[in-house]
Amino acid sequence: MANPFSLEGKVALVTGANTGIGQGIAIALAAAGADIAAAGRSEPTETQAAVEALGRKFLSIKADFGSTEPVQRVVDETVATFGKVDILVNNAGIIRRADSIEFSEADWDAVMDTNLKVVFFLTQAFAKQALKRGGGKVINIASLLSFQGGIRVPSYTAAKSGLAGLTKILANEWATKGINVNAIAPGYFDTNNTEALRADQDRNAAILARIPAGRWGRPEDIGGAAVFLASSASDYVQGITLPVDGGWLAR
Ligand SMILES: NC(=O)c1ccc[n+]([C@@H]2O[C@H](COP(=O)([O-])OP(=O)(O)OC[C@H]3O[C@@H](n4cnc5c(N)ncnc54)[C@H](O)[C@@H]3O)[C@@H](O)[C@H]2O)c1
Ligand SMILES: O=C(O)C(=O)C[C@H](O)[C@H](O)CO
C-alpha cells in the first residue's frame, strides 16, 4: 500500500508561512514531500531554509491579505512557477482585542476582511484551477473561538466561527468534485498572535491551568494534522474543524 500521508509531487500554497503556525505547517508539508509557495507580507525566514533543506522547492510571494486584491495573482504566480496548486492552507490571520462596548469599526473590518472575506475569495481562486485539474485540498486555520466565545475578541470570534461554517458549505459544494475542505482549530499556541496573553501573568496562568497538556502549543505540534488533511489519508473527511489543543476542549 502506498503511504497515504505522502505529499510527493504536490504543491502547497500556504499564507502567512514565514512565522508561527504557518511556518510549522509549511515545514511539515515539505517533510511529507510537497513544494511550498509561501504568500504573505513578511520576508522569507527560516521557513525557506527548512523547506529547502528537506529537498523541496520554495517560492516566496509578497501579498497583503488585508484585501482581496492579491488573491488571483497569488494563485497565478504559484501556477506559473510550479504548474499547479494542489493544497491551499488559509493560515494568515490577525487578532484585535478590546471590550465589545468600545470595539472600533476599523478593527471589526480588518479582522473580518483578513480572517474571513479574503479566505473565501482566495479559496475561490484556488478552486477554479483545482476543479479544472480534478481536485485539491483546502485547510482553513480556525480557532478554539470557532467553538467558544473568548474574551475581548468580538470580531475574531465572529470571523473564526464564520470560518468553521464556511468550511462546511464549501465542503458540501465541492465534495463530489474532488476538493476536500477542512479546518484545524489550534488551541493556545506560543506565537506572535498570543504574545499579549503570555505577557499578562494572570491570563497566562489561567490559560496554562486549563490546558490538560500543561503547556502552550508549539508550531511543530500542528504539522501532523495539516499533513493528514492535505493528503489522501483524508479523502473521505469533509467539513470538519479539527482541534489541536492539548486537550483544551476536553476539559
Ligand atoms: N497562536 C494561537 O494560539 C492561535 C490559535 C488559533 C488560531 N490561530 C490562527 O493561526 C493563524 C496563524 O497565527 P499565528 O498564531 O501563527 O500568529 P502569527 O502572527 O505568527 O502569524 C500570522 C501570519 O499571518 C500573516 N498575516 C497577517 N495579516 C496579513 C496580511 N494582511 N497579509 C499577509 N499576511 C498576513 C503574518 O505576517 C503572519 O505570518 C492565524 O489565522 C491565527 O488566527 C492562532
Ligand atoms: O483569546 C485570545 O485572545 C486569543 O488570542 C485566541 C487564540 O489566539 C486562539 O485563537 C485560541 O484558539
From TrEMBL:
Its EC number is 1.1.1.127. It comes from the Bacteria. Belongs to the short-chain dehydrogenases/reductases (SDR) family. This is 2-dehydro-3-deoxy-D-gluconate 5-dehydrogenase. The keyword rRNA-binding does not apply. Keywords: NAD, Oxidoreductase. It catalyses: 2-dehydro-3-deoxy-D-gluconate + NAD(+) = 3-deoxy-D-glycero-2,5-hexodiulosonate + NADH + H(+). It holds the Pfam family adh_short_C2. Gene3D superfamilies: NAD(P)-binding Rossmann-like Domain. GO terms for molecular function: 2-dehydro-3-deoxy-D-gluconate 5-dehydrogenase activity; 2-deoxy-D-gluconate 3-dehydrogenase activity; NAD binding. The keyword GTP-binding does not apply. It comes from Caulobacter segnis (strain ATCC 21756 / DSM 7131 / JCM 7823 / NBRC 15250 / LMG 17158 / TK0059) (Mycoplana segnis).
